[in-house]
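Thread amino acids onto this structure.
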């Protein structure tokens, strides 16, 4: 289906200052490893009558959520100490499995390099625990791009996504304005958090999920970071920024063959 949102409006007040990324499902394809870890532990506990949980169950009740939120759903009567022990074991399993084959969403590294070349600030903002987040970024080899990592659990009890706190904290640490920043997300609650923090959100989603993420507030929906729609949108932000700068100088932007002379953001090619 076609995205009915204006695909070029991903920055409210160009030029861009910052890009903020969720991690699970947005920076990397991590759901299979989370599912494997949860399924193994839950089966051992006899959850769901000992039957394996399905990927659909994981997407509905776990994806994008903090351990606090997942724990309340899975085991509402468990004391905090028992939940902490369960999630410590789960995260250790996840880290072990992720090292076997965690991979980035296509084109992410190219976008990070493009952003760094333009002096943009980057942050990772996640509902995952910090050790988990740092493991994923490390496995991907992207730590150099993400000196700022903000986790929902560090924002206080009940302040994980969909609350905006983690994104607002990241903006503060970066010294960036929400009008000059864009969020990349894959989950409905993550999109809601970015929108609540006052930023446009680019959703990484398959066509089958497009209606849901647009309903949650996504300004643009792309399949991955190689999607031509994303690079057209970035080109549109560049053009708007160049036009605004020219207007501030009292001169119109240079026009060549009927087009503004803005170097387009080329779609990167994966090696």
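Threaded sequence (271 positions):
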């Amino acid at each position: 289906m076609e995205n009915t949102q204006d695909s070029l409006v991903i920055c409210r007040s160009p030029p861009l200052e910052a890009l903020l990324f969720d991690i699970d499902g947005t920076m990397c394809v991590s759901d299979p490893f989370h599912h494997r870890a949860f399924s193994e532990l839950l089966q051992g506990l006899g959850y769901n009558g000992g039957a394996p949980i399905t990927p659909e169950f994981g997407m509905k009740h776990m994806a994008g959520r903090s351990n606090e939120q997942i724990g309340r759903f899975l085991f509402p009567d468990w004391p905090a100490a028992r939940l902490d022990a369960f999630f410590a074991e789960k995260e250790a399993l996840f880290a072990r499995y992720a090292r076997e084959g965690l991979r980035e969403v296509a084109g992410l590294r190219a976008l990070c390099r493009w952003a760094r070349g333009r002096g943009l600030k980057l942050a990772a903002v996640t509902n995952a625990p910090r050790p988990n987040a740092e493991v994923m970024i490390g496995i991907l080899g992207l730590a150099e791009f993400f000196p700022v990592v903000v986790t929902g659990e560090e924002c206080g009890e009940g302040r994980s996504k969909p609350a905006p706190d983690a994104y607002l904290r990241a903006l503060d640490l970066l010294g960036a304005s929400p009008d000059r920043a864009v969020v990349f997300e894959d989950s409905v609650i993550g999109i809601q958090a970015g929108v609540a923090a006052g930023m446009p959100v680019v959703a990484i989603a398959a066509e089958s999920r497009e209606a849901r993420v647009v309903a949650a507030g996504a300004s643009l929906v792309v399949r991955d970071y190689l999607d031509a729609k994303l690079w057209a949108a970035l080109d549109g932000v560049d053009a708007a920024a160049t036009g605004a700068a020219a207007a501030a100088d009292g001169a119109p932007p240079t026009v060549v063959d009927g087009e503004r002379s803005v170097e387009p953001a080329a779609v990167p090619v994966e090696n």
